[in-house]
Specification:
Helix content is 25%, strand content 27%. The chain is of the alpha+beta class. The chain has one domain. Strands 3-2-1-5-4 form a five-stranded antiparallel β-sheet, with helices on both faces. β6 and β7 (129-133) form a beta hairpin. The protein is globular and about 35 Å long.
């Protein structure tokens, strides 16, 4: 999860056009931590994975649209037992925010990537989404 925030920090520094897709809600604890993100560059480069399987193409497409128009989007994945009919096949419901990080987000992205302290992540959804990204756990 932290590597994508390092990518966000780097791409902001490089003034690249990109959007982030961030997991903001999940019906099954342990599936993926809230805040897990996928980053898509304007050139189609993809970094990261939020575990949405067959919905990843839809999430990437939403990122590309958001890069183009700046509109914050939400992608809702409704899980079912039947992946063939469009469910996730893992019985999990996900809500993903697609947004464009601004340059002012760079320091927070660096803090999340470093993992040295808890960081309050604010995603500009309507209403505003607040997630606390916990610091890394010490290795034992």
């Amino acid at each position: 999860m932290r590597a994508e925030f390092d990518t966000i920090k780097e791409w902001l520094w490089e003034n690249r056009m990109f959007a982030a897709a961030t997991l903001i809600e999940c019906s099954r604890p342990g599936f993926a931590p809230l805040g897990t993100s996928l980053v898509v560059g304007g050139d189609g480069t993809v970094s990261g994975d939020i575990g949405a399987g067959c919905y990843e193409a839809e999430i990437v497409e939403s990122c590309l649209r958001t890069i183009g128009d700046g509109v914050v989007r939400e992608v809702v994945v409704t899980g079912s037992d039947d992946a063939i009919e469009g469910g996730t096949g893992c019985r999990v419901n996900l809500r993903v925010a697609v947004w464009v990080p601004r340059s002012s987000f760079g320091p927070a992205a660096a803090m999340i990537a470093a993992g040295d302290e808890d960081v309050d992540l604010q995603i500009p959804t309507n209403p505003l989404t607040h997630l606390t990204i916990p610091r890394k756990r010490p290795s034992s």
